[in-house]
Amino acid sequence: MTTLVDKSSSTLIKEYAAEIGFDLCGIARARSLDEHRDILTKWAYTGMNGDMTYLGQNIEKRLDPRILFPGAKSIIVTGLNYYTEKKQGGNGIPMISRYAYGANYHDVIREKLNKIRDFIKSIHPEAVGRSYVDSAPLLEKAWGREAGLGWPGKHSILINRKIGSFFFLGVIVINIDFDYDQPAEEDSCGTCTLCIDSCPTGAINNNRTINTRKCLAYLTIESKAPIPVDLAVKSEGRVFGCDKCQEVCPWNKSSKPHKTPEFELPAEVGLMTAENWKNLSRKDYKKLFEESVIGRRTYCRFMDNIEAASV
Ligand code: SF4
Ligand code: SF4
Asked: Given the CA of residue 246, which atom of ligand 1 is nearest to it?
């Protein structure tokens, strides 16, 4: 029988997650997130997903992880802080988003999630689960809220009262029932609109969604089209991602530095000027970023970003 509620397992899983470096861990019951259907459908229908057309497909699967993984009972959601006070060189240095400073977070987190999965298997041999880091049609942020990790800020990113919003989400979908956390019900944004007011391109909608077609994070990472000039002039030197809406958020004022060595920014990258970037050969770019999320952007597209940021 695999469906016994087991409080001690939930506690053990969270303790183990903390032991291997996760800052947050919560568990939610698998269900269909029906309350997100309308907003998700409308968001995709109105083209807010840019050319990430896959985000408008498989809506039912996105809402219900039991379609993605038949037999799913629980969704374990982890948070891993990536905040750092160390910044790149200084004025005029093309800016990279903090989340891309070090090693590819997909690899770092998946390895940790798989350790949790193995740990669960050691106490529940019948457990079968899958680990996901941005790799499946799952509403990670919604599940983060459901598992009690935090609330979606007006910039749409999950905020945790203790560690702010600079954290990665990881998800395990598994066939065991556990003791579940309460969903985070609070909305502690209050009357603040700092992220909306500070967004350089006006990309934040008034319903906690982003118009990705205007968002610099999308334009400099995911988009396959050149960055429109009217938006490039507002990029303020950003060439891979954008942290502006998180940097202005009061909930990040007391963020603590991460403790994951893999997320450190290599010194040579931190000091690279636009000229240094332009002189980087295709071969050196590949070598420098083969273990980084930056390497997912092709050399040509990255160089387009450098050009666009100097408009
Ligand atoms: S990441 Fe930058 S461009 Fe995108 S919504 Fe936030 S502030 Fe605006
Ligand atoms: S900046 Fe203000 S409105 Fe935006 S997410 Fe933070 S608290 Fe919420």
From this structure: 6
Give strand ranges (E) for the chain: 24-29, 74-81, 95-96, 129-132, 151-152, 158-159, 167-174, 238-240
231 ligand 1 Cβ < 6 A: no
Pair (231, 155) in one structural domain: no
Number of domains, the chain: 2
Per-residue pLDDT of the chain (311 residues; tens, 9 = 90+): 444 455 589 999 999 999 999 999 999 999 999 999 998 888 877 777 777 777 777 889 999 999 999 999 999 999 999 999 988 877 889 999 999 999 999 999 999 999 999 999 999 999 999 999 998 999 999 999 999 999 999 999 999 999 999 999 999 999 999 999 999 988 999 999 999 999 999 999 999 999 999 999 999 999 989 999 999 999 999 999 999 999 999 999 999 999 999 999 998 899 999 999 999 999 999 999 999 999 989 999 999 999 999 87
Nearest CA to ligand 2 atom 7: 189
User: What's this model's pTM, rounded to 2 decimal places?
Assistant: 0.94
Report how far ligand 2's centroid is from the alpha carbon of 235 (Å): 20
In terms of domains, do 35 and 138 share one?
Answer: yes
Please tell me whether residues 210 and 305 are part of one structural domain: yes
The one catalytic residue in 34, 134, 181, 230 is 134
| CB atoms closer than 10 angstroms to residue 129 | 26
187 as an active site residue: the answer is no
For residues 249 and 192, what is the distance between their CA atoms, to the nearest angstrom? 9
In which domain, by residue range, is 158 found? 7-87+97-174
Pocket test for ligand 1, best of 99, 212, 242, 305 (most atoms within 8 A of CB): 242
- State which of 174, 203, 233 marks the end of a domain: 174
